[in-house]
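Journal club prep — side note

Before the paper discussion, L.F. wants everyone to see what a predicted structure for a comparable chain looks like in token form. Sequence:
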Amino acid sequence: MRASEFIAGATALLASGVSAEAYLGFNSGNTLPSREAKFKKDWVQEFTTAQNLKNAPGTFNAVRLYTNIQAYSQTSEPIEAFEAAIETNTKILLGVWASGTNTIEPEIKALQNGIAKYGKKLTDLIIGASIGSEDLYRVSVTGIQNKSGVGAGPSELVKFIADWKKAFQGTAIANVPIGHVDTWDAWTNGTNKPVIDAVDWVGVDEYPYYENGKGNNIENSGYLFDRAYNAIENVVAGKPIWVTETGWPYVGQTWDKAEATVKNQQYYWQEVGCRKLFGKVPTFWYNLRDSNPDNEMKFAITDNLSTTPHFDLTCPKTFKTTPKASSSGASSTSAATGTGVSSPSSVESGSSGSGSSGSGAEQSGSASSGSASSSEPATVTAPAESAVATGSATSVKGVSAAAVAGMTLLVGVFAML
């Protein structure tokens, strides 16, 4: 075996094995349900509630943002979530809006302005950056059918990722892992492989609720989630998967066999969150509170940012979704379905919606494996996203065996050169 092959293998092992924390979080856009801009006080309230939820399976002390730009800003003003995160010690998954534009320079400039203002206090909290959100879904056949809005193709995203890396080369965040967020079926589409190759981690928005035509009753939700997750694992060459949006609504229409109730919301929390994700995979739940006035489906786990959720967040000791049954379940084919744009009858079988496709503003949403919080930017330079996100993380201390093996392999390779 050639040294280059050793290095390639070791790199793959390192990519899949090194992870400091399995973050727990929610999603947070930059506008309120009234479409008014959020300011520092609004995020402080969100982040404080997230960190103090009763019976939570961990401390929710991280947030997934959709943009670096303060809502309605015309001058790349840094989003005030940065200052709120510093005040509450909330970790930040940065978001960069990448659809409907030929440059991410305003996003880059907003973050640079934020770093110039807050320095190490901000950079120490940044755990990752997502270049784009459901852009590939929106340019897919299903996304276009569902009128999910303007997206971006793989070549555009790869360029934006390179632009981002160049802009922050040699800075305090040069080594922050870069990812892209999209629907599960966007990742399994072979034409999008260049994006997988360009990122450090893969972000997935997955909503079994929207999987119409696939037996999407609540009892099957865990199996549908597992099938989508496993399909992504099969194509990402060992790169880490971050679950950036998932959840179940408690209010809304019956979507094929999926019913929106508090009881079902708790079942999904337990069978997907507790069983599969919390403490194991970086997870940003959808959502802490609802911010998209245009979405009939409501996903919030609490009202008015109360620390007492709609249901008991305690994780059970046993689960109804079993590994054996998970391999049987509903059909695994079909395209993703939407979150808040199309009605169930207008889409075929669907993968799952997300909560935030769009500009990050929880408004129009992506309909198919899209999100529940998408929308048009508040201005050309300041996407108005709204899903509230704050989150936490359960530490996964140390380096995995795969990572150790990868580092050992690298040492051996260089000794041979």
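L.F.'s comment for the group: The chain has a mean pLDDT of 81. Keep this in mind when we get to the figures.
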